[in-house]
């Protein structure tokens, strides 16, 4: 019954998902290059365009805007159709969103290595591209909420609440953070200065994590996990608590990036307290997703896609445990500005976001092209272990490097003088930066296996799936 | 409509999400944004010169803030290592802030009081000449590319509009100050300015 396909707009979803796979590999490959540059500085090649300072924002933008946003746009547009039993609100709008977003990514790919940057972390693009982002985002919001409005089902499915919050809050925080006065076509100055700018910057910086990398991914998982495990969501009530917990508390937490800085202490304290409170809805949500998977223990024994989702949930627990911990003053004193923070971000980005994405790709892509099974399950297993070895090495290496350098920066002799020079701390962590590079490379190798496997899957001749879900 | 909730009405879903997510703007963001005068009252900061503004933009363009922070925290070992801790008023002319988030290299808040301009030049051209195990990329091209100064008046005017007290005279002379200088020299001028305006406020 390939009719299932024709009831919904699927083509634009396929395009988004292919773009997401391509950017996941490109963005993370650049990450591996950066990791290598930190061990072998000669790999900067004395080149203006590929030196660390310019490649780094391309890595973060490629992963966040390329991999994650393409994936969330694609899956959200599919899920909103399926759960509302209706086609997209407007088909040409969906293509404008797709090509508009690819234009944003292309401009990022060109302008960031050329040194056009606003310097605001995770929002480095200059003002004309920011305007394009806002325009595309508004069209996306109209398309998404328009499709919800014309749904044929009374109830708005859980996944769509999270996608809705992701679309709305990202718009709010993106616009406020990027308010700038243009100087020329590719140069502007933030309208906020110093401490005020930092508060706005981290309000954005942490909520990009909260709503792009968390709420959006949760939305995606609340659809795919029940589908995959063939069981309903474990607790509806928990998902309501999860939702309002995130929406209500997440936007407060960003100022934990400014602990011990020169911003007012009460602003720092709000960030600390709210980060601790966030622990509850996060783990409630994780419990809910884990129980949804565990309801089908038979399938969990054999299905590596289930294992990927389970691992993603465990990494979510780890990262949302570690986050509030790092916000506490004492831990923050040691960890702030060290490799530990990079390790924390990556155990979430590779473990939670990456593995959710991988599981979604493996489950979704064959079905999106009407195929019944993967080309190679053996390759899927290899990917599973490569990804896990990769994240584990990455996280362990940066725990050691970060905690080590954090202590070395703080350590004082009995007479009060500093025990270590900055260079000594750098030399201490050098071997661990190599381990990090190796872990990251394992993760990207796994992605390449996935891309090959999925390519073979969709291009091979085989029976079509009964229903494209 | 009032009998519905966010799981049954897209309008209620949108409005309730905006309202709940926006409390932090009211409590956290707005009160801090309106404190400008209060912060200025205690500030020792001095505006950057035209050449230093040009240098700061090169610092931004090369992504120096990706690896170097400009925020010495009020913790004893940090102050011993990097000099006087930042105060809220120090950064009132910093559009945008360059506090950074990762210390791959040392903190630069008070860098201007540490090394000579010649050291900075050598270090930028080949960091491993002065620090053998340094991870920093080399920036030799900065000393080959020359600034035209075409955009500096615009930059100064925009900064003045945002609240930096530049005089008309300073803005008019800015192009002459910048034109023909290499990017590297401008960057060194900026680096050498860091922390000098607050030098009189050293912790005793």
TrEMBL record, chain A:
Entry keywords, A to Z: Cell membrane, Copper, Electron transport, Heme, Iron, Membrane, Metal-binding, Oxidoreductase, Respiratory chain, Translocase, Transmembrane, Transmembrane helix, Transport
InterPro entries referenced in this protein's UniProt entry, alphabetically: Cyt_c_oxase-like_su1_dom, Cyt_c_oxase-like_su1_sf, Cyt_C_Oxase_1, Cyt_c_Oxase_su1_BS, Cyt_c_oxidase_cbb3_su1
Details of cofactor binding: Binds 2 heme groups per subunit, denoted as high- and low-spin. Binds 1 copper ion per subunit, denoted as copper B.
Transmembrane segments: 12-40, 60-80, 92-115, 127-149, 161-183, 203-224, 236-253, 265-284, 304-321, 341-365, 385-410, 430-452
Enzyme class (EC, first level): translocase
PROSITE patterns: COX1, COX1_CUB
GO biological process entries: electron transport coupled proton transport; oxidative phosphorylation; respiratory electron transport chain
Membrane topology note: Multi-pass membrane protein
Binding residues for Cu cation: 206, 256-257
E.C. number: 7.1.1.9
Cofactor: heme; heme b; Cu(2+)
Chain residues that bind heme b 1; low-spin: 59, 346
Pathway info: Energy metabolism; oxidative phosphorylation
Catalyzed reactions per annotation: 4 Fe(II)-[cytochrome c] + O2 + 8 H(+)(in) = 4 Fe(III)-[cytochrome c] + 2 H2O + 4 H(+)(out)
Subcellular location: Cell membrane
GO molecular function, one term: cytochrome-c oxidase activity
Binding site for heme b 2; high-spin: 344
Chief localisation class: membrane
Family: Belongs to the heme-copper respiratory oxidase family.
Name by which UniProt lists this protein: cytochrome-c oxidase
Organism this protein belongs to: Shewanella piezotolerans (strain WP3 / JCM 13877)
TrEMBL record, chain B:
A single GO molecular function term of this UniProt record: metal ion binding
Entries under Gene3D superfamilies matching the protein: Cytochrome c-like domain
Alphabetic keyword roster: Heme, Iron, Membrane, Metal-binding, Transmembrane, Transmembrane helix
Transmembrane segments: 6-30
Database matches in PROSITE patterns: CYTC
NCBIfam families: PRK14487.1
Name of the protein described by the UniProt record: Cbb3-type cytochrome oxidase, cytochrome c subunit
UniProt organism field: Shewanella piezotolerans (strain WP3 / JCM 13877)
Lineage, broadest ranks: Bacteria, Pseudomonadati, Pseudomonadota, Gammaproteobacteria, Alteromonadales
């Amino acid at each position: 019954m390939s009719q299932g396909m024709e009831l919904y707009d699927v083509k634009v979803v396929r395009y988004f998902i292919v773009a997401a796979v391509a950017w996941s590999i490109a963005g993370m490959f650049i990450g591996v290059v950066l990791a290598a540059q930190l061990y072998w500085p000669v790999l900067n090649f004395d080149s203006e365009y590929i030196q660390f300072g310019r490649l780094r924002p391309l890595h973060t933008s490629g992963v966040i805007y390329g991999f994650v946003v393409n994936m969330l746009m694609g899956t959200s547009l599919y899920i909103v159709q399926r759960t509302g039993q209706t086609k997209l609100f407007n088909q040409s709008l969906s293509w404008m969103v797709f090509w508009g977003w690819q234009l944003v990514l292309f401009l990022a790919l060109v302008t960031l290595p050329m040194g056009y940057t606003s310097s605001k972390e995770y929002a480095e693009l200059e003002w004309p591209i920011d305007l394009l982002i806002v325009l595309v985002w508004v069209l996306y919001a109209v398309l998404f909420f328009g499709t919800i409005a014309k749904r044929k089902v009374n109830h708005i499915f859980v996944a769509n609440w999270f996608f809705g919050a992701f679309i709305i809050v990202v718009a709010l925080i993106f616009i406020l953070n990027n308010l700038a006065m243009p100087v020329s076509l590719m140069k502007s100055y933030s309208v906020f200065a110093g401490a005020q700018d930092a508060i706005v910057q981290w309000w954005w910086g942490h909520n990009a994590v909260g709503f792009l990398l968390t709420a959006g991914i949760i939305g995606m998982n609340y659809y795919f996990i029940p589908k995959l495990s063939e069981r309903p969501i474990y607790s509806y009530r928990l998902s309501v608590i999860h939702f309002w917990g995130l929406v209500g508390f997440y936007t407060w937490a960003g100022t934990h990036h400014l602990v011990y800085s020169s911003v007012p202490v009460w602003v720092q304290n709000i960030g600390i307290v709210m980060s601790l409170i966030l622990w509850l809805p996060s783990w409630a949500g994780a419990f809910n997703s884990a129980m949804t998977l565990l309801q089908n223990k038979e399938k969990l024994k054999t299905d590596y896609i289930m294992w990927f989702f389970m691992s993603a949930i465990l990494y979510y627990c780890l990262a949302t445990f570690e986050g509030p911990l790092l916000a506490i003053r004492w831990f923050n004193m040691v960890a702030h500005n060290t490799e530990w923070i990079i390790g924390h971000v990556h155990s979430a980005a590779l473990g939670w976001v990456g593995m959710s994405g991988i599981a979604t790709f493996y489950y979704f892509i064959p079905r999106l092209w009407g195929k019944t099974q993967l080309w190679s399950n053996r390759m899927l297993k290899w990917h599973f272990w490569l990804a896990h070895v990769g994240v584990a090495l990455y996280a362990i290496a940066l725990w050691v490097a970060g905690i080590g350098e954090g202590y070395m920066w703080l350590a004082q002799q009995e007479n009060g003088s500093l025990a270590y020079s900055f260079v000594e701390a750098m030399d201490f962590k050098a071997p661990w930066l190599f381990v990090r590079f190796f872990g990251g490379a394992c993760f990207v190798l796994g992605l390449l296996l996935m891309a090959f496997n999925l390519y073979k899957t969709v291009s091979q001749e085989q029976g079509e799936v009964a229903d494209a879900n | 409509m009032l009998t519905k909730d966010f799981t049954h009405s897209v309008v209620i879903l949108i409005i309730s999400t905006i309202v709940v997510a926006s409390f932090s703007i009211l409590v956290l963001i707005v009160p801090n944004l309106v404190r400008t005068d209060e912060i200025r009252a205690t500030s020792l900061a001095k505006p950057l010169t035209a050449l230093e503004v040009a240098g700061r933009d090169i610092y931004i363009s090369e992504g120096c803030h990706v690896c170097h922070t400009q925020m010495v925290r009020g913790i004893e070992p940090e102050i011993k290592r990097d000099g006087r801790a930042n105060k809220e008023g120090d950064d009132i002319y910093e559009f945008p802030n360059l506090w950074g988030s990762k210390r791959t290299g040392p903190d630069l808040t008070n860098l201007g009081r540490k090394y000579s301009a010649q050291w900075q030049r050598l270090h930028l051209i080949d960091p491993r000449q002065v620090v053998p195990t340094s991870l920093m990329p080399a920036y030799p091209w900065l000393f080959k590319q020359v600034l035209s100064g075409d955009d500096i008046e615009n930059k100064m005017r925009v900064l003045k509009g945002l609240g930096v007290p530049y005089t008309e005279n300073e803005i008019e002379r800015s192009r002459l100050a910048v034109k023909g200088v290499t990017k590297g020299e401008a960057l060194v001028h900026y680096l050498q300015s860091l922390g000098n305006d607050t030098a009189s406020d050293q912790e005793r």
